Amino acid sequence: MTRIGRRSALKTTASIAAGGLAFGSALSTTAAAAAPGAAGAGTLNVRWIGGGVVEVATPDNKQLAYVDAWVWNNAAYSVLKVDRPAEFASPDAFASYVSARSPDAVLVLLTHDHGDHIGDYFDVLKALSGAGLNVKTSGQSDLLRGGLVQKFKDSGLDPAQIVVNGGAGQNFGGMAQHGAMQTWLVPAVHSNLLGFPSAGFVIQIGGVRVYASGDTDLYGDMRMIADRYHPDVALVCAGGGPYTMGPRDAALACSMTGVTQAVPIHYGHNMQVKGVEAAAEFKQALAELAPNATAQVFNLAESRAITV
Ligand SMILES: [Zn+2]
């Protein structure tokens, strides 16, 4: 009830800001065609692969999304001294693991080109498409259709086929669809090695909206992500260190985006970011800053159902 009340309040505020209730209703109708107009409901299975890399699946495994692709080279297993599961140990093992779930669609989302996100990206795409799976990828349009296009070709991948929207990817506010999944690209205050903008995603999968922050600092327009997309679950970078916001700002990001389930990620995968203490600090800050949200702290490689 608390959640519904808070979201109704948000919608009312948006209507007033748009110039009154009548115009507000018309705006809502238009916006609904382009972006989710209300909170979602459903269950997702979430698995933390390590660092900023996460698997999100519908309970029947028919729709499967990966946020970034650093798997067999993911250093979190050595940093946190956890045995890497066999399915994350090689491209072949990973392809078998995904194939065994018989997904209708697999979507690999690339937030940006830093090594701890793109590290195994081309090999993941090659392995999954080589296994005959219906796999596509999305990311910021000029990064995919410009910066990385030769790397797709060098990997034997046709960018017009493997990249959503006929090779275009998506830009901010733009949409992509693969299978029954939709994504919108949202800003991240971060960068790419190749100079194109870094990004986050809102993913609609199984009736649930997931905000995947990518690497980012905290910024004020995260509140607009709440107003426009009504995300339910955040996968939020929380590791601090030299490059991104830390646990307390990550908790504030969850408050600003209005999510009810909050998963801290992007910690414990190198010596520059915080270790598991990031999750404890995040949980404590979330209780203070976003008391309506539940912290979902994962062990490395753990899978868990999250219901909203
Ligand atoms: Zn980065």
Q: Which topology does CATH recognise?
A: Metallo-beta-lactamase, Chain A
Rg for CA atoms: 18 Å
List cofactors, ions and other ligands: zinc ion
Query: What order do the helices and strands follow?
Result: HHEEEHHEHHEHHHEEEEHEHEHEE
- C-alpha geometry: globular
Q: What's the CATH architecture name?
A: 4-Layer Sandwich
The CATH homologous superfamily is named Ribonuclease Z/Hydroxyacylglutathione hydrolase-like
Supply the CATH class: Alpha Beta
- How far the N terminus sits from the C terminus, by CA atoms, comes to 12 Å
Number of helical elements: 12
Query: What structural class do the secondary elements suggest?
Result: alpha/beta
What share of the residues lie within helices?
A: 25-40%
pLDDT below 50 for ≥5 consecutive residues: which ranges?
1-33
Q: What number is the mean pLDDT?
A: 90
Number of domains: 1
Percentage of β-strand residues: 15-25%
Q: Could you describe the largest sheet, including whether it forms a barrel? A: 7 strands, mixed
Give the strand tally: 13
Widest β-sheet, arrangement of strands = 6-7-8-9-10-11-12
